[in-house]
Amino acid sequence: MLSPNINNMSTNADPADTETVPIAGNRRLWRNFGGIFSARSADGSEADADGYVEFGITDPERSHGRTLGTFAGVFSPVALSMFSALIFIRVGFIVGNAGLFVTLLQFVIAYTILLFTVSSVCAISTNGAVDGGGVYFMISRTLGADFGGSIGTLFFLANIVGCALCVTGCAEGLIENFGPSGYLVEEGSFTLPDSRWWRFFYCSMINAVMLIVCLIGATMFAKTSVMILGIVSVCLVSTYISFLAQGPMQVSIPQENQLVQNDTNPAFGLYTGLSSLTFHDNLYSNYSKDYTSGGSQVNFAIVFGVLFSGVTGIMAGANMSGELKNPSQSIPRGTLSAVTFTFVCYILLAILMSATCSRFLLQNNFLFLMPINLWKPFIAIGITTATFSAALSNMIGSSRVLEALAKDQVYGSALNFVIRGTWKGNPVVAVFTSWILVQVILLIGSLNTIAQINSVLFMLSYLATNLACLGIELTGAPNFRPSFKYYSWHTCFFGLLGTLIMMFVINPIYSSSSIILCLVLVIGLHLFSPASQGAQWGSISQALMFHQVRKYLLMLDSRKDHVKFWRPQMLLLVSSPRSCCPLIEFVNDLKKGGLYVLGHVKLGNYEDNDDPTIDEYKYWLSLIDHLKVKAFAEVTLAKTIREGVHHLIRISGMGAMKPNTIVMGFYDEENLYDFFESENSPYHTQTFRNDPTTEEEASIFPVRHAGAPKKLSPKEYVALVDDVLRMRKNICLCRHFHRLDKNLIARTNHIKYIDVWTVNVFDPTNEDPFDVVSQFMLQLSCILNMLPVWKRMHVRVFLCETQPTNNTGNFTMTPPVTQDQPAEFRLSQQLKLFRIDATIHQIPEWSRNDDFTRHSAVLKHFTRSDAEAEEGISEELLNRSRMYMQKVNQLIRERSDQTAVAFIYLAAPPSVSAQHGSAKSLAYLDLLTELTADLPPTILVHGIHAVNSTTL
To answer: How far is residue 799's CA from residue 842's CA, in Å, rounded to a whole number?
Structure first.
């Protein structure tokens, strides 16, 4: 029933084809199914869970190369990898030093961690299509490219170290069987020479044979793994039978053990057969020295490290995911059954050893199983096949992980040589790379030392797997619906915690180093990886952040806001970002960790066509990335600009995080400068090309050309300013910011000041420095002065005192001084109370020149709302006001030669609802234009809320 429905959704599908679903033209549709599908592109290569249905539909082309079932593809590799070098070589070492009780405890701890991790692996692998790369694939698709890539890299190294461990064990078995004191060598016959470098040579030869097998292909190994497992099982059964059938005997200690062996009196260990006395003697711990690593002292951590290194093969089946017919079904079944099988085998072997072998024998001869076996070659065959197959499994796994890292472009083009070096589906170059790294690890020599490194790296991989499953479970993502149900956040958490603890128990130095390396890789990949930047798989970090942000937004109560913790929350209204890049960056500096929203209004009607803001929104996100500002973007569609701005002011932000300050550009006739097109601009980019030959690109941030009519009339602009104030928001009007050059400010010594003009030039009084607007300007200047680029600027506050007055000003925090004191002294005291480092500059021309007082008096007409003010604006009044503004502008310009930014008091706009509102709006804008003409970058500010605090 599924196939016809899906085929009907595809525009390119053959209606008669009910088996395959092409992905052409429907990739977005397939991705919405939450990863249940897998895909193949037009050239036949596999895609990432985008196109072919994994469940219920069989695709012959997709199944080509996926030939392995549960037993051959998962159970056999996992069982062989978990037997590895431990089953025949190191179980006696563990029991002899730790004792049976601690050995059983260690196996329980190890397998508990493994069981929890397996449940996480099963949950993730049954939640969608699993491709090649095994654990790396699952972690990267769950946690994201940066975290997944770093863990994938460490998992690749873990497989390399695991391969070297098994090769070393295989060479050790050969020496113990065919070396100078080998159990299979007859007296006087040829023996293999034994020394550190001879062992390295044998390891290299074994590694070379593995290289040949891996080059032939992983499928051949998987098909033979069933036979190899059968051989190992027969050898293991012969060992159990030998424990029950053999009588007491003396077992010689190998010549390699120089701790107890000498040429004059050869040492022997005692095999007692089943004995209650021997069993009792082996119950408790008695740590000795390890003769294979120079006589170093053994302890609990070393023993557990060796034990855990032998059972790290639970990922062997997942590593074969690219060759499995049905990985989502085979991985859980095969892995769990293999874990149970190996656990029973290990426990039975440990009990039989403790009941039949003396502690001296267990501690000083790691290959004692050979002489006590009914047929000695069984052990030799078992050691060789178990270690060789486990080594092959690790090498194949490492090459597949490396191939997956290269295909995903986690390290960009650095691993392209791996992709190009694939022959008939076999990653030849990846295999050669793994082989070379194994050769390097083999130089360590000691199996027990390699085992600790191997255990730590694999544990870190298991930790990441549990973390991935825990994270996605805690987020409550609706698309996380694995068919494997025997897991919970409890199993993930305890698996993670147990892994972390036992890592540091094994070796704190190795553990700390691997975690630091992982964190370095996470940060590096997050910053520089193309795969991370693309975020094509989804990242659990986004889901976790959504979960936490939602919770904290609900806790953030606007009723509990306090002036002590006030910060600017900016909404910058942008018509075209091409012409206002410096302003966007400047407001980003001014926000002081607060909310920053870029708002844009598109003119249109929803009834005409589809909402154009949906497709345009991605360009705004690209703009934020390009300018490197910490902002959000909001785009709305409205019939008028004024209506759209109302939308943005009301709906921007969420909960208590809503804009409190609206920033707008100035309404003037200056030619707009395109910062994206100019090659000399620091904002130059080809990302937003404005090519009129392409309709799509021509619509990206269009800019108004010279002479073209504006979408907003002067009356509407002034009405917007009035609307903002009536909506109880602070307002900032910015002019000349196309002249702002932060790079020049940072490197020149000429620009020194941030100026604050606290006088309301429309109605100047002595109380101006103490009203809410002036305090808001001072707060903004102080915030700007805190930032690194602006820190070396000095804040200047200009005080324009006209005549003494006893009127009470509008105070937010009344300074502890009387009103009859000079305004400069009162302002100085207020700056100290607000901890603002600034110098006060008195303007003597203002108090000496009566023209300022005479001309400013008529300006009160613009801010009056009574009937007298509604009579209109006479030409004489306007001219006198314009002359006054020109004088104020000249006064400001004379003091702004070294000014970077100037904050100027913005008077409230006139009422535009009156009969002569349009004329008053034009006059209001005309006077503001005269006031700010030829000034440095200027912000006209009007604040309505208290923003400063003098309390702790």
So the answer is: 5
Strands 730-735 and 938-942: antiparallel
Residue type, position 401, single letter: V
Q: What is the pLDDT of residues 586-600, one digit of tens each?
A: 999 998 888 999 999
User: For all residues of the chain together, what is the average pLDDT?
Assistant: 78
What gap in Å lies between CA 271 and CA 256, rounded to an integer?
20
Please report, for residues 40, 487, 733, the alpha-carbon distance to residue 483 in angstroms, rounded to integers and kept in the order given.
Answer: 24, 11, 58
- Are 780 and 568 in contact by the 8 Å Cβ rule? The answer is yes
Q: Contact at 8 Å (CB) between 87 and 382?
A: yes
Q: Which of 529-533, 619-623, 670-674, 757-761 has the lowest mean pLDDT?
A: 529-533
Q: What is the DSSP string of 382-401?
A: HHHHHHHHHHHHHHHHHHHH
Total length of the chain: 952
Tokens of 663: 């920033």
Q: Please check whether residue 140 is in contact with residue 520, taking contact to mean a CB–CB distance below 8 angstroms.
A: no
Q: What is the DSSP string of 818-844?
A: -TTS-HHHHHHHHHHHTT--EEEEE-H
HEC states along 266-311?
A: CCEEEECCCCHHHHHHCCCCCCCEEHHHCCEECCHHHHHHHHHHHC
Contact 882, 876 (CB under 8 A): no
Nearby residues of 521 by Cβ (< 8 Å), 6 or more positions away = 149, 150, 153, 154
pLDDT at residue 806, rounded to an integer? 42
In whole angstroms, what is the distance from residue 743 CA to residue 747 CA?
A: 6
C-alpha span between 6 and 387 (Å, rounded): 48
Neighbours of 679 (CB within 10 A): 5
- Whole-number Cα distances in Å, 60 to 20, 325, 460: 9, 11, 38
Write out pLDDT tens, residues 31-54: 333 333 333 333 333 333 333 333
Residue (of 531, 558, 723) closest to 643 by Cα position: 723
Neighbours of 475 (CB within 10 A): 17
Cα–Cα nearest to 758, from 710, 815, 788, 801? 801
Q: What angle do CA 261, 265, 270 make, to 5 degrees?
A: 70
SS3 label, residue 333: helix
- Smallest Cα–Cα separation from 41: which of 21, 19, 58, 71? 21
Q: Is the pTM of this model over 0.85?
A: no
CA distance 787 to 589: 7
Output the pLDDT for position 768.
Answer: 58
Phi, psi at residue 271, to the nearest 5°? -100, 115
DSSP string, 690-709: --TTSHHHHTSS--PPTTPP
> Which structure tokens are listed for 488?
């919970």
Q: Are strands 249-252 and 268-271 parallel, antiparallel or unpaired?
A: antiparallel
User: Which of the two residues, 833 and 862, has the higher pLDDT score?
Assistant: 833
For the chain, the farthest-separated pair of C-alpha atoms sits apart, in whole angstroms, at 128
Q: How confident is the model at residue 653 (pLDDT cuts 50, 70, 90)?
A: confident
Considering Cα of 889, then 894, then 897, then 903, what sign does the dihedral take? Answer: negative
* Pick from 364, 410, 357, 433: nearest CA to 163: 433
Using DSSP's 3-state secondary structure scheme, residue 409 falls into coil
Query: b or e along 48-85 (b: 16 or more beta carbons within 10 Å of the residue's beta carbon)?
Result: bbbbbbbeebebeebeeebebebbbbbbbbbbbbbbbb
* Amino acid 65: pLDDT: 55
Give the DSSP letter of residue 495: H
Task: Pull the structure tokens for residue 651.
Answer: 């709906």
Mean pLDDT, residues 894-919: 80
Task: Answer whether 200's CB lies under 8 Å from 445's CB.
Answer: yes
CA distance 575 to 902: 23
